[in-house]
Write a structure and sequence with these properties.
Length: about 425
């Protein structure tokens, strides 16, 4: 269990060198020696870990490991690890989190971790009466399902409910959705196991041919909800707040805008999910399917004017795990978990939803005021200036140790190999 002592406010973190940032973050989150060593060696994973994760591995592929600051969720401070290649995403999330922090922080809640195991049957002779027959044997199906996942059941989780849906009477196609509480796991393996275990019993009850036995990536009973308030004074005044509310309404009215709005929201969710070793493809699939579930694609979040401020809300299905193989698969993910310090999958889902709201707020704020490009360029100039400042300081503080590289000491792309005397 990680010690829960975090200060998510690290003003001016961007001004420091990568090494100093690692030290500051490690201090703020009381990280272990292992995590500090991970930062000190520049992060990454070794090729043998990579080889054990995938197939035909020939090398590793890197991404920046960044830390978003300023998050308060349910009155707790969080430093959020983010792995993303797109500039501004981390700065934007941290900046919006600071504004929300000034107004009390984010609040989030998540349903129990109910995943859906699907069993497909075709050519069922009497699909219409199948539902009642299966319902009558639900306890038996739960027992068979639970027996296939004994460790989960030992921890107090397992099969909870089922539903039968006839998809085509003509072809006798029906699906049994089994709802399984997977606790702190993401749960994909677990529900796949349940689906395979119960399928022969279902077939013995109603006949037909067994089709697919697999989880659904639309976990409608595993939704996360988050809310935050930002005061006009924190967001840049009532005109900016009005602009954000109008931008939100635009997304509610127009599918083309809703998709981009959601992309900005998912910038934050995905970046944190990647750093935390989560299955971001399943997160994306579920979130977007949910947006279109009523037949018209909607924004994942909305922003409304409230007295002297704005209120942002989101509500969507989110399957993430705080235990299990992927959470310890490599040093990067272990470090990410040490940083974020969540004690359950539900807490993790809440944090990710708030990072989504923060990313979305930052994007809408920029779009509703100065436009997105100015912020990008300001950030870019700030980074260049900070780098120049660092190198000026290094030159001032270090005795002259290095001589200029000779032409034969340059690599093929012109970068100098390290030359010390
Ligand atoms: C860019 O990655 C995300 C934005 O397009 C989101 C938005 O338009 O709301 C800026």
């Amino acid at each position: 269990m990680t010690t829960r002592r975090v200060n998510a406010r690290i003003p001016g973190l961007f001004k420091h060198s990568v090494e100093e940032r690692g030290r500051l973050v490690a201090e703020s989150a009381s990280l272990s020696d292992r995590a500090r060593a991970f930062f000190a060696r520049g992060g990454g994973i070794d090729v043998s870990s990579a080889d054990s994760m995938s197939e035909n591995v020939v090398a590793t592929f890197g991404l920046p490991f960044s830390v978003a600051t300023n998050f308060i969720v349910n009155q707790r401070d969080y430093l959020v690890p983010m792995a993303v290649e797109e500039p501004s995403v981390v700065a934007a999330a941290s900046n919006a989190a600071r504004m929300v922090r000034e107004s009390g922080g984010f609040f989030a809640e998540c349903d129990a971790s109910i995943m859906t195991a699907q069993v497909q049957l075709d050519d069922v002779p009497d699909a219409r009466s199948a539902s009642a027959l299966i319902e009558a044997r639900r306890q038996e199906l739960f027992s068979v399902g639970d027996r296939s996942i004994p460790k989960m059941v030992d921890r107090g989780f397992g099969c909870r409910d089922l539903a039968v849906r006839v998809l085509s009477e003509e072809h006798g196609v029906l699906v049994v959705d089994l709802f399984v509480d997977v606790g702190d796991a993401m749960g994909a393996n677990c529900v796949d196991t349940v689906a395979e275990a119960v399928a022969p019993i279902v077939q013995s009850i109603v006949g037909g041919r067994i089709g697919l036995r697999i989880l659904s990536n639309l976990p409608l009973r595993r939704r996360v909800r988050a809310v935050c308030r930002v005061d006009d004074s924190a967001i840049g005044g009532p005109e900016v707040a009005d602009g954000i509310a109008r931008a939100s309404r635009f997304a509610e009215l127009d599918v083309f805008r809703a998709v981009t709005h959601n992309k900005g929201f998912m910038n934050g969710v995905d970046a944190a999910a990647v750093a935390l070793g989560q299955d971001w493809r399943s997160i994306e699939a579920g979130a977007h399917a949910f947006c279109a579930i009523d037949g018209r694609y909607k924004p994942l979040s909305t922003w409304k004017r409230v007295e002297h401020g704005l209120e942002g809300r989101c509500d969507f299905p989110l399957a993430v795990g705080s235990v299990g193989g992927s959470t310890t698969a490599n040093d990067a993910v272990r470090t990410a978990f040490e940083l974020v310090k969540v004690e359950s999958a539900r807490e993790l889902a809440g944090v990710l939803a708030c990072v989504g709201l923060a990313s979305n707020l930052a994007a809408l704020r920029a779009l509703a005021s100065e436009g997105i490009q100015k912020g990008h360029m300001k950030l870019h100039h700030r980074k260049v200036e900070a780098a120049a400042q660092r190198s000026r300081e290094e030159v001032r503080s270090e005795p002259p140790r290095a001589r200029a590289p000779q032409p034969e000491e340059l690599t093929s792309n012109g970068a100098a190999r390290t030359v010390t005397q």
